[in-house]
Amino acid sequence: MCIAMLRRFGPHSSRWIFVIFTLIFNLIAIGGARKFQISRKQPNQVHLSYGATETERVVTWVTLDKTKESAVEYGVSTRDAKASGYASSFVDGGPKKRSMYIHRVVIRGLTHGVTYRYRCGSAESWSPEFTFKMPRVGDSLTLAVYGDLGTVNAQSLPALKSETQGGQLDAVLHLGDFAYDLDSKDGYVGDAFMRQIEPISAYVPYMTAVGNHERKYNYSHYASRFTMLQQSGKINNFFYSFNLGPAHIISFASDYYLRKSTHAQVPNQFHWLEADLQEANLPENRNMRPWIITMSHHPMYCSNKGERDCNLIDSLVRTGLGSKKKYALEKLFRKYGVDLQFTGHQHSYERTWPIFNYTVYDNDCLEWYHNPEAPVHIVAGAAGNDEKLKKFPSYQPPWSAVRMAEYGFCKLRLLNRTHINLEYITTSQAPEVVDHLTIEKDDPYPCFSKYRMNESS
Prior knowledge:
Elements: H1 2-9, H2 14-34, E1 44-50, E2 57-63, E3 71-75, E4 81-84, E5 86-91, E6 99-107, E7 115-122, E8 125-126, E9 130-133, E10 141-146, E11 149-150, H3 157-165, E12 171-174, E13 178-179, H4 188-196, H5 198-201, E14 206-208, H6 216-225, E15 240-244, E16 247-251, H7 266-280, H8 283-288, E17 291-295, H9 308-311, H10 316-319, H11 329-335, E18 340-343, E19 349-352, E20 355-356, E21 359-360, E22 368-370, E23 376-380, E24 400-404, E25 408-414, E26 419-426, E27 432-440, H12 450-456
Parallel strand pairs: 10-12, 11-13, 12-14, 16-17, 17-18, 18-23, 22-27
Antiparallel strand pairs: 1-2, 2-6, 3-4, 3-7, 5-6, 7-8, 7-9, 10-25, 15-16, 19-23, 19-24, 20-21, 25-26, 26-27
């Protein structure tokens, strides 16, 4: 079939070469979810995340049997240092009650501007060697941002692997909905997904937010497979924050708002969010890290066709719970000067003008927002999965600046204290930049935050 297609469309057709490559990749992914042979103490599904400080990295991996130790050997020219951690047993909630061991090791005291090599495991079995780079202080940083990536129809995965292996990415922000789903087929689909992203996640920190596809068995696969540290050093994969260059990045669980069974978690998360934002806005912190960015799953603004989330003006996440609209996040984020909000869930790409409560600000220049007077929202939920894309109606609301039903991912560049840059790269065919935005601000505090407004009053 592949040879026939090449004969028909020509050997130099980049579109069909990309389509064929993606088809083959998806067939391999489907097979990998069903059967994967590995020794029971062999480390696999290796992935990195940020630690409690900028000079820490966390290495997480899986074995099928318990090992005598959980260790990482690492170094620059040779692996002459060793860090030890621990393993936790995890039992899938499906009929087979599959068990595995999830290992976690924190590497501390790393040096900026250095590339490290490492392997993880134990004397019983080691992983292959991987590398990661510690960026130099003051360097611009490039992040891939996307949600809703599955093992099947993972359209963006080849490009993401290429960018990672080419040294073009410093980290990944995954906005929820993994594998479709982590728990499926007694967790074998989750295993296949974690191996599928290993050429990315073993080389750059893979930071996550929880989505609705992680709900099964009380989110247990998501809670167990990843290691997101709060700045206190405690693991909390549902709401946490980290500092990265000139940015403070906050991940939170929008899904708490959408299920009555998790409404009890909303007050705790909300109070943590407000405390975290207050600390991020202390003068010494906001001057050092002027950009505050959030990542979650469900959008506050979207305009997809026939989507319940997009047709309800009063989003629970945006305006809060109950008749008293408690724990509303749009007001909270505006109050504390959140610059940029990333979400997924809708399998498409959409960028808003600066917006608050459906009022649009600063819609003069499509590709350059200078001192925006409200937060900017980005929906990037089209990395690729078996549910395909979500279409848009013909009418485009005035708050929607750019939108497209195209597979792809965002590249966010944290350039410096005054400029950040965003691109959307479509992967529906050969990767191509199809949207570009620069946000510039002259003061660390956005003009709409309570801190700037207090100054002017």
